[in-house]
Amino acid sequence: MRRALVTSAKVVGMFVVITVLWSLWSSRSVGEWITMLSAAGNSGAVAYAVMALAFALLIGVGVLIQYLNSRGTELTVVGSHPTFRRAATFTVVGGLALVTLGVGPIRNSLGERTSDLIASIQEERLNEYDEEQLDRGYYEGLLDADAYTSALSLVRARKPNRGWEAVRESEAVRRTDGLMVYELLPGYASTYKDAPFETNRWGMRDKEYEKAKPAGTYRAALLGASYEMGAGVTRDETFEAVVEQRLNSEHAGDAFDSYEVLNLSVGGYGVLHYLLQTERRVFDFEPDAVFYAIHSTEERRLAAHIKDLVRGGWQIPYPFLRNVIEESGVSTAMTDEEIRLALLPHLDSVIEWSLQEIAERCRERDLVPVWLFIPTTDEEESVMAGRFETLKGMAVDAGFALVVLEDVYGDHSLKELQLAPWDRHPNELGHRLIADSFYKALQQNRDALSPTPF
What's the CATH number where 212 sits? Predict the structure, then answer.
Protein backbone atom coordinates (compact mmCIF):
# COMPACT_ATOMS: atom_id res chain seq x y z
CA MET A 1 0.00 0.00 0.00
CA ARG A 2 2.80 2.39 0.92
CA ARG A 3 4.56 1.73 -2.35
CA ALA A 4 1.35 2.37 -4.31
CA LEU A 5 0.79 5.61 -2.39
CA VAL A 6 4.32 6.83 -3.12
CA THR A 7 4.02 5.94 -6.82
CA SER A 8 0.70 7.77 -7.16
CA ALA A 9 2.05 10.82 -5.33
CA LYS A 10 5.06 10.90 -7.66
CA VAL A 11 2.82 10.81 -10.74
CA VAL A 12 0.63 13.64 -9.42
CA GLY A 13 3.73 15.58 -8.37
CA MET A 14 5.21 15.26 -11.86
CA PHE A 15 1.93 16.52 -13.31
CA VAL A 16 2.12 19.58 -11.05
CA VAL A 17 5.74 20.26 -12.05
CA ILE A 18 4.90 20.01 -15.75
CA THR A 19 1.93 22.34 -15.24
CA VAL A 20 4.08 24.95 -13.52
CA LEU A 21 6.75 24.69 -16.22
CA TRP A 22 4.07 25.04 -18.90
CA SER A 23 2.78 28.23 -17.25
CA LEU A 24 6.35 29.60 -17.30
CA TRP A 25 6.80 28.66 -20.96
CA SER A 26 3.46 30.30 -21.89
CA SER A 27 4.33 33.58 -20.15
CA ARG A 28 5.97 36.44 -22.02
CA SER A 29 8.49 37.06 -19.27
CA VAL A 30 9.60 35.74 -15.90
CA GLY A 31 8.17 38.89 -14.32
CA GLU A 32 4.77 38.21 -15.85
CA TRP A 33 4.94 34.61 -14.62
CA ILE A 34 5.77 35.68 -11.07
CA THR A 35 2.90 38.20 -11.16
CA MET A 36 0.55 35.46 -12.31
CA LEU A 37 1.65 33.16 -9.50
CA SER A 38 1.22 35.99 -7.01
CA ALA A 39 -2.34 36.54 -8.25
CA ALA A 40 -3.05 32.82 -7.84
CA GLY A 41 -1.67 33.07 -4.32
CA ASN A 42 -4.51 35.45 -3.45
CA SER A 43 -7.05 32.62 -3.80
CA GLY A 44 -9.22 31.94 -0.78
CA ALA A 45 -9.17 28.99 1.62
CA VAL A 46 -11.99 27.26 -0.27
CA ALA A 47 -9.99 27.25 -3.52
CA TYR A 48 -6.96 25.73 -1.77
CA ALA A 49 -9.18 23.13 -0.09
CA VAL A 50 -10.72 22.13 -3.45
CA MET A 51 -7.26 21.84 -5.02
CA ALA A 52 -5.99 19.69 -2.12
CA LEU A 53 -9.08 17.47 -2.37
CA ALA A 54 -8.55 17.05 -6.12
CA PHE A 55 -4.93 15.98 -5.59
CA ALA A 56 -6.00 13.57 -2.86
CA LEU A 57 -8.64 12.03 -5.12
CA LEU A 58 -6.13 11.59 -7.94
CA ILE A 59 -3.68 9.89 -5.61
CA GLY A 60 -6.50 7.72 -4.26
CA VAL A 61 -7.56 6.65 -7.75
CA GLY A 62 -3.94 5.74 -8.53
CA VAL A 63 -3.69 3.61 -5.39
CA LEU A 64 -6.98 1.87 -6.22
CA ILE A 65 -5.85 1.05 -9.76
CA GLN A 66 -2.58 -0.44 -8.47
CA TYR A 67 -4.48 -2.46 -5.85
CA LEU A 68 -6.88 -3.91 -8.42
CA ASN A 69 -3.99 -4.78 -10.71
CA SER A 70 -2.26 -6.59 -7.86
CA ARG A 71 -5.44 -8.67 -7.35
CA GLY A 72 -5.47 -9.69 -11.01
CA THR A 73 -8.40 -7.47 -12.00
CA GLU A 74 -8.26 -6.46 -15.65
CA LEU A 75 -9.16 -2.80 -16.22
CA THR A 76 -9.46 -3.10 -19.98
CA VAL A 77 -12.31 -4.10 -22.26
CA VAL A 78 -10.17 -6.02 -24.74
CA GLY A 79 -8.13 -7.87 -22.12
CA SER A 80 -4.48 -7.58 -21.14
CA HIS A 81 -3.26 -9.73 -24.05
CA PRO A 82 -5.89 -9.45 -26.81
CA THR A 83 -5.64 -11.22 -30.14
CA PHE A 84 -5.19 -9.13 -33.25
CA ARG A 85 -8.76 -9.85 -34.36
CA ARG A 86 -10.21 -8.79 -30.98
CA ALA A 87 -8.16 -5.58 -30.81
CA ALA A 88 -8.96 -4.68 -34.43
CA THR A 89 -12.68 -5.33 -33.89
CA PHE A 90 -12.88 -3.02 -30.89
CA THR A 91 -10.84 -0.35 -32.70
CA VAL A 92 -13.04 -0.43 -35.82
CA VAL A 93 -16.31 -0.50 -33.86
CA GLY A 94 -15.15 2.33 -31.64
CA GLY A 95 -14.05 4.39 -34.62
CA LEU A 96 -17.35 3.85 -36.43
CA ALA A 97 -19.25 4.85 -33.29
CA LEU A 98 -17.29 8.11 -33.07
CA VAL A 99 -17.86 8.85 -36.77
CA THR A 100 -21.58 8.14 -36.36
CA LEU A 101 -21.87 10.44 -33.36
CA GLY A 102 -20.15 13.16 -35.39
CA VAL A 103 -22.82 13.17 -38.11
CA GLY A 104 -24.70 16.49 -37.83
CA PRO A 105 -28.30 15.31 -37.22
CA ILE A 106 -27.23 12.57 -34.82
CA ARG A 107 -24.83 14.86 -32.94
CA ASN A 108 -27.45 17.61 -32.60
CA SER A 109 -30.00 15.15 -31.20
CA LEU A 110 -27.76 14.43 -28.19
CA GLY A 111 -28.35 17.77 -26.49
CA GLU A 112 -26.48 21.07 -26.61
CA ARG A 113 -23.66 20.19 -24.22
CA THR A 114 -22.92 16.76 -25.72
CA SER A 115 -23.20 18.13 -29.25
CA ASP A 116 -20.80 20.97 -28.48
CA LEU A 117 -18.31 18.54 -26.89
CA ILE A 118 -18.30 16.31 -29.96
CA ALA A 119 -17.98 19.32 -32.27
CA SER A 120 -14.99 20.57 -30.29
CA ILE A 121 -13.24 17.23 -30.89
CA GLN A 122 -13.99 17.31 -34.62
CA GLU A 123 -12.96 20.93 -35.22
CA GLU A 124 -9.81 22.99 -34.73
CA ARG A 125 -11.08 25.33 -32.03
CA LEU A 126 -9.58 28.00 -29.82
CA ASN A 127 -9.23 26.96 -26.22
CA GLU A 128 -10.34 29.24 -23.38
CA TYR A 129 -6.92 30.93 -23.15
CA ASP A 130 -6.85 31.55 -26.92
CA GLU A 131 -10.39 32.95 -26.81
CA GLU A 132 -9.29 35.42 -24.14
CA GLN A 133 -6.12 36.30 -26.05
CA LEU A 134 -8.09 36.98 -29.24
CA ASP A 135 -10.63 39.07 -27.34
CA ARG A 136 -7.96 41.04 -25.47
CA GLY A 137 -6.00 41.42 -28.71
CA TYR A 138 -9.04 43.09 -30.24
CA TYR A 139 -9.35 45.59 -27.39
CA GLU A 140 -5.73 46.04 -26.36
CA GLY A 141 -3.49 44.98 -29.26
CA LEU A 142 -1.77 42.44 -27.00
CA LEU A 143 -1.32 39.53 -29.38
CA ASP A 144 2.32 38.54 -29.82
CA ALA A 145 3.32 36.17 -32.59
CA ASP A 146 5.47 34.07 -30.27
CA ALA A 147 2.53 33.52 -27.92
CA TYR A 148 0.21 31.93 -30.48
CA THR A 149 -0.97 28.37 -30.22
CA SER A 150 -1.51 26.51 -33.49
CA ALA A 151 -5.26 27.19 -33.46
CA LEU A 152 -4.79 30.89 -32.82
CA SER A 153 -2.10 31.10 -35.48
CA LEU A 154 -4.42 29.54 -38.05
CA VAL A 155 -7.16 32.03 -37.21
CA ARG A 156 -4.86 35.04 -37.38
CA ALA A 157 -3.21 33.88 -40.62
CA ARG A 158 -6.59 34.21 -42.36
CA LYS A 159 -7.22 37.73 -41.09
CA PRO A 160 -6.66 40.50 -43.68
CA ASN A 161 -3.89 42.96 -42.86
CA ARG A 162 -6.12 46.03 -43.14
CA GLY A 163 -9.71 46.86 -42.34
CA TRP A 164 -10.21 44.41 -39.45
CA GLU A 165 -8.13 46.04 -36.74
CA ALA A 166 -9.71 47.10 -33.45
CA VAL A 167 -11.66 50.32 -33.91
CA ARG A 168 -9.31 52.11 -31.52
CA GLU A 169 -6.48 51.40 -33.99
CA SER A 170 -8.51 52.42 -37.04
CA GLU A 171 -8.90 55.71 -38.86
CA ALA A 172 -12.45 56.02 -37.51
CA VAL A 173 -11.31 57.38 -34.14
CA ARG A 174 -9.36 60.28 -32.73
CA ARG A 175 -7.32 60.37 -29.55
CA THR A 176 -8.55 62.52 -26.68
CA ASP A 177 -6.45 64.29 -24.11
CA GLY A 178 -8.18 62.78 -21.12
CA LEU A 179 -9.95 59.87 -19.52
CA MET A 180 -11.92 58.75 -22.58
CA VAL A 181 -8.61 57.94 -24.37
CA TYR A 182 -10.32 57.86 -27.80
CA GLU A 183 -13.69 58.51 -29.48
CA LEU A 184 -15.34 58.10 -32.88
CA LEU A 185 -14.73 60.86 -35.40
CA PRO A 186 -17.81 62.96 -36.22
CA GLY A 187 -18.98 62.79 -39.83
CA TYR A 188 -16.72 59.87 -40.73
CA ALA A 189 -17.49 57.66 -43.73
CA SER A 190 -15.39 54.75 -44.99
CA THR A 191 -15.30 50.96 -45.25
CA TYR A 192 -14.45 48.95 -42.14
CA LYS A 193 -14.72 45.18 -41.73
CA ASP A 194 -15.90 44.91 -45.33
CA ALA A 195 -18.98 47.07 -44.69
CA PRO A 196 -19.79 50.80 -44.83
CA PHE A 197 -18.92 52.54 -41.57
CA GLU A 198 -20.41 56.00 -41.03
CA THR A 199 -20.86 58.32 -38.08
CA ASN A 200 -23.14 61.32 -37.68
CA ARG A 201 -22.12 64.87 -36.74
CA TRP A 202 -22.15 63.91 -33.05
CA GLY A 203 -19.68 61.06 -33.53
CA MET A 204 -22.31 58.31 -33.16
CA ARG A 205 -22.51 55.18 -35.31
CA ASP A 206 -26.02 56.22 -36.20
CA LYS A 207 -28.09 58.41 -38.48
CA GLU A 208 -28.40 62.16 -37.92
CA TYR A 209 -30.42 63.45 -34.96
CA GLU A 210 -31.05 66.91 -33.59
CA LYS A 211 -29.50 67.47 -30.18
CA ALA A 212 -32.79 68.83 -28.83
CA LYS A 213 -35.40 66.07 -28.55
CA PRO A 214 -38.35 66.73 -30.92
CA ALA A 215 -41.74 67.20 -29.31
CA GLY A 216 -43.76 64.00 -28.95
CA THR A 217 -40.68 61.80 -29.29
CA TYR A 218 -39.57 58.99 -27.00
CA ARG A 219 -35.78 59.04 -27.05
CA ALA A 220 -33.51 56.33 -25.66
CA ALA A 221 -29.72 56.41 -25.46
CA LEU A 222 -27.71 53.20 -25.87
CA LEU A 223 -24.22 53.01 -24.37
CA GLY A 224 -22.20 49.96 -25.27
CA ALA A 225 -19.05 48.56 -26.85
CA SER A 226 -18.29 46.82 -30.14
CA TYR A 227 -21.36 44.56 -30.18
CA GLU A 228 -23.61 47.61 -29.97
CA MET A 229 -21.50 49.76 -32.32
CA GLY A 230 -22.05 47.11 -34.97
CA ALA A 231 -19.01 47.29 -37.25
CA GLY A 232 -19.21 44.75 -40.05
CA VAL A 233 -22.85 45.43 -40.88
CA THR A 234 -24.44 48.54 -42.35
CA ARG A 235 -25.71 51.25 -40.05
CA ASP A 236 -29.33 50.29 -40.71
CA GLU A 237 -28.62 46.62 -39.89
CA THR A 238 -27.40 47.18 -36.32
CA PHE A 239 -29.83 45.82 -33.77
CA GLU A 240 -30.59 49.23 -32.26
CA ALA A 241 -31.50 50.60 -35.71
CA VAL A 242 -33.74 47.60 -36.37
CA VAL A 243 -35.49 48.09 -33.01
CA GLU A 244 -35.95 51.82 -33.67
CA GLN A 245 -37.49 51.11 -37.07
CA ARG A 246 -39.82 48.51 -35.57
CA LEU A 247 -40.93 50.82 -32.77
CA ASN A 248 -41.83 53.49 -35.30
CA SER A 249 -43.62 51.08 -37.63
CA GLU A 250 -45.66 49.41 -34.88
CA HIS A 251 -46.13 52.06 -32.16
CA ALA A 252 -45.75 55.54 -33.66
CA GLY A 253 -48.87 57.53 -32.88
CA ASP A 254 -49.71 55.55 -29.74
CA ALA A 255 -48.13 56.95 -26.59
CA PHE A 256 -45.57 58.90 -28.67
CA ASP A 257 -45.46 60.30 -32.19
CA SER A 258 -42.03 58.80 -32.90
CA TYR A 259 -39.16 56.85 -31.36
CA GLU A 260 -35.41 57.42 -31.45
CA VAL A 261 -32.63 55.16 -30.20
CA LEU A 262 -29.31 57.03 -30.16
CA ASN A 263 -26.31 54.74 -30.46
CA LEU A 264 -23.42 56.17 -28.42
CA SER A 265 -21.56 52.83 -28.38
CA VAL A 266 -17.85 52.63 -29.21
CA GLY A 267 -15.79 49.47 -29.64
CA GLY A 268 -13.60 48.76 -26.62
CA TYR A 269 -15.60 50.99 -24.27
CA GLY A 270 -16.50 49.65 -20.85
CA VAL A 271 -18.29 50.61 -17.69
CA LEU A 272 -15.85 53.40 -16.78
CA HIS A 273 -16.33 54.92 -20.24
CA TYR A 274 -20.09 54.72 -19.67
CA LEU A 275 -19.73 56.72 -16.47
CA LEU A 276 -17.73 59.39 -18.28
CA GLN A 277 -20.23 59.50 -21.15
CA THR A 278 -23.09 59.80 -18.66
CA GLU A 279 -21.46 62.72 -16.87
CA ARG A 280 -20.27 64.58 -19.96
CA ARG A 281 -22.51 63.81 -22.91
CA VAL A 282 -25.65 61.71 -22.55
CA PHE A 283 -27.97 64.21 -20.87
CA ASP A 284 -27.33 66.84 -23.58
CA PHE A 285 -29.60 64.74 -25.83
CA GLU A 286 -32.51 64.71 -23.34
CA PRO A 287 -33.10 60.93 -23.23
CA ASP A 288 -36.16 59.38 -21.65
CA ALA A 289 -34.21 56.19 -20.94
CA VAL A 290 -30.54 55.24 -20.91
CA PHE A 291 -29.56 51.64 -21.70
CA TYR A 292 -26.16 50.39 -20.56
CA ALA A 293 -25.15 47.26 -22.46
CA ILE A 294 -23.16 44.89 -20.27
CA HIS A 295 -21.40 41.67 -21.23
CA SER A 296 -19.77 38.95 -19.16
CA THR A 297 -16.33 40.13 -20.40
CA GLU A 298 -16.75 43.58 -18.85
CA GLU A 299 -13.61 43.30 -16.71
CA ARG A 300 -11.37 42.87 -19.79
CA ARG A 301 -12.33 46.24 -21.24
CA LEU A 302 -12.09 47.86 -17.82
CA ALA A 303 -8.55 46.52 -17.31
CA ALA A 304 -7.55 47.82 -20.75
CA HIS A 305 -8.99 51.25 -19.94
CA ILE A 306 -7.24 51.57 -16.58
CA LYS A 307 -4.00 50.42 -18.23
CA ASP A 308 -4.35 53.25 -20.77
CA LEU A 309 -4.91 55.76 -17.96
CA VAL A 310 -1.80 54.57 -16.11
CA ARG A 311 0.33 54.58 -19.27
CA GLY A 312 -0.95 58.03 -20.27
CA GLY A 313 -0.33 59.54 -16.85
CA TRP A 314 -3.76 61.18 -16.84
CA GLN A 315 -4.99 62.92 -13.71
CA ILE A 316 -7.90 60.85 -12.38
CA PRO A 317 -10.63 62.92 -10.67
CA TYR A 318 -12.20 60.00 -8.80
CA PRO A 319 -10.65 59.30 -5.35
CA PHE A 320 -12.01 55.74 -5.35
CA LEU A 321 -10.31 54.90 -8.65
CA ARG A 322 -7.05 56.56 -7.57
CA ASN A 323 -7.05 54.41 -4.42
CA VAL A 324 -7.63 51.23 -6.43
CA ILE A 325 -4.72 52.00 -8.72
CA GLU A 326 -2.50 52.77 -5.73
CA GLU A 327 -3.52 49.61 -3.87
CA SER A 328 -2.95 47.42 -6.94
CA GLY A 329 0.62 48.71 -7.21
CA VAL A 330 0.50 49.13 -11.00
CA SER A 331 3.05 51.37 -12.67
CA THR A 332 4.34 52.29 -16.12
CA ALA A 333 7.37 50.08 -15.49
CA MET A 334 5.17 46.97 -15.64
CA THR A 335 4.23 45.06 -18.77
CA ASP A 336 0.62 45.14 -19.95
CA GLU A 337 0.05 41.61 -18.65
CA GLU A 338 1.56 42.47 -15.28
CA ILE A 339 -0.77 45.47 -15.02
CA ARG A 340 -3.77 43.32 -15.90
CA LEU A 341 -2.94 40.66 -13.34
CA ALA A 342 -2.29 43.26 -10.64
CA LEU A 343 -5.66 44.89 -11.35
CA LEU A 344 -7.58 41.62 -11.55
CA PRO A 345 -8.55 41.35 -7.85
CA HIS A 346 -9.89 44.94 -7.91
CA LEU A 347 -11.90 45.00 -11.14
CA ASP A 348 -15.25 43.88 -9.74
CA SER A 349 -15.13 46.59 -7.08
CA VAL A 350 -14.51 49.20 -9.82
CA ILE A 351 -17.42 47.83 -11.88
CA GLU A 352 -19.68 47.98 -8.83
CA TRP A 353 -18.58 51.52 -7.99
CA SER A 354 -19.05 52.66 -11.61
CA LEU A 355 -22.60 51.27 -11.74
CA GLN A 356 -23.47 53.03 -8.50
CA GLU A 357 -22.10 56.33 -9.80
CA ILE A 358 -23.99 55.96 -13.10
CA ALA A 359 -27.23 55.22 -11.27
CA GLU A 360 -26.76 58.24 -9.03
CA ARG A 361 -26.18 60.56 -12.03
CA CYS A 362 -29.35 59.24 -13.68
CA ARG A 363 -31.43 59.64 -10.51
CA GLU A 364 -30.32 63.26 -10.31
CA ARG A 365 -32.09 63.68 -13.68
CA ASP A 366 -35.14 61.63 -12.63
CA LEU A 367 -34.08 58.85 -14.99
CA VAL A 368 -34.05 55.14 -14.27
CA PRO A 369 -30.86 53.59 -15.72
CA VAL A 370 -31.46 50.33 -17.57
CA TRP A 371 -29.00 47.43 -17.36
CA LEU A 372 -29.09 45.64 -20.72
CA PHE A 373 -27.47 42.20 -20.72
CA ILE A 374 -26.63 40.81 -24.17
CA PRO A 375 -24.97 37.37 -24.46
CA THR A 376 -22.17 37.37 -27.00
CA THR A 377 -21.69 34.89 -29.84
CA ASP A 378 -18.61 33.29 -28.30
CA GLU A 379 -19.42 32.72 -24.65
CA GLU A 380 -19.43 29.39 -22.87
CA GLU A 381 -22.82 29.03 -21.20
CA SER A 382 -21.39 28.09 -17.79
CA VAL A 383 -18.94 31.01 -17.75
CA MET A 384 -21.58 33.46 -18.91
CA ALA A 385 -24.05 32.31 -16.26
CA GLY A 386 -21.59 32.86 -13.42
CA ARG A 387 -20.61 36.35 -14.54
CA PHE A 388 -24.21 37.21 -15.33
CA GLU A 389 -25.31 36.56 -11.75
CA THR A 390 -22.41 38.61 -10.35
CA LEU A 391 -23.00 41.59 -12.65
CA LYS A 392 -26.77 41.38 -12.23
CA GLY A 393 -26.38 41.59 -8.45
CA MET A 394 -24.25 44.71 -8.80
CA ALA A 395 -26.83 46.34 -11.09
CA VAL A 396 -29.75 45.52 -8.80
CA ASP A 397 -27.91 46.88 -5.76
CA ALA A 398 -27.16 50.10 -7.66
CA GLY A 399 -30.82 50.58 -8.60
CA PHE A 400 -30.86 49.69 -12.29
CA ALA A 401 -33.93 48.41 -14.08
CA LEU A 402 -33.10 45.12 -15.78
CA VAL A 403 -33.59 44.12 -19.40
CA VAL A 404 -32.08 40.70 -19.93
CA LEU A 405 -31.95 39.12 -23.38
CA GLU A 406 -32.45 35.37 -23.11
CA ASP A 407 -32.27 32.57 -25.67
CA VAL A 408 -31.18 35.17 -28.19
CA TYR A 409 -29.58 32.88 -30.76
CA GLY A 410 -31.92 29.88 -30.51
CA ASP A 411 -30.71 26.82 -32.39
CA HIS A 412 -28.30 28.77 -34.59
CA SER A 413 -24.67 27.75 -34.53
CA LEU A 414 -22.58 30.55 -33.06
CA LYS A 415 -20.22 30.37 -36.05
CA GLU A 416 -23.24 31.06 -38.24
CA LEU A 417 -23.70 34.38 -36.43
CA GLN A 418 -20.11 35.66 -36.42
CA LEU A 419 -18.53 38.07 -38.89
CA ALA A 420 -15.46 35.91 -39.57
CA PRO A 421 -13.31 33.21 -37.95
CA TRP A 422 -11.02 35.97 -36.64
CA ASP A 423 -13.88 38.25 -35.55
CA ARG A 424 -16.66 36.86 -33.35
CA HIS A 425 -18.85 39.98 -33.42
CA PRO A 426 -22.39 39.44 -34.75
CA ASN A 427 -23.12 39.57 -38.46
CA GLU A 428 -26.40 40.77 -39.98
CA LEU A 429 -28.25 37.63 -38.84
CA GLY A 430 -26.80 38.00 -35.35
CA HIS A 431 -27.96 41.61 -35.12
CA ARG A 432 -31.42 40.64 -36.38
CA LEU A 433 -31.74 37.99 -33.66
CA ILE A 434 -30.53 40.44 -30.99
CA ALA A 435 -33.05 43.01 -32.26
CA ASP A 436 -35.92 40.50 -32.02
CA SER A 437 -34.92 39.59 -28.47
CA PHE A 438 -34.42 43.23 -27.47
CA TYR A 439 -37.81 44.26 -28.84
CA LYS A 440 -39.52 41.38 -27.03
CA ALA A 441 -37.72 42.27 -23.79
CA LEU A 442 -38.82 45.91 -24.13
CA GLN A 443 -42.44 44.80 -24.36
CA GLN A 444 -42.09 42.53 -21.34
CA ASN A 445 -40.31 45.16 -19.22
CA ARG A 446 -41.99 48.36 -20.39
CA ASP A 447 -43.48 49.06 -16.93
CA ALA A 448 -39.94 49.28 -15.51
CA LEU A 449 -39.21 52.23 -17.83
CA SER A 450 -40.32 55.72 -16.94
CA PRO A 451 -42.04 57.03 -18.96
CA THR A 452 -43.29 53.78 -20.49
CA PRO A 453 -42.42 53.78 -24.20
CA PHE A 454 -45.71 52.33 -25.47
Answer: 3.40.50.1110
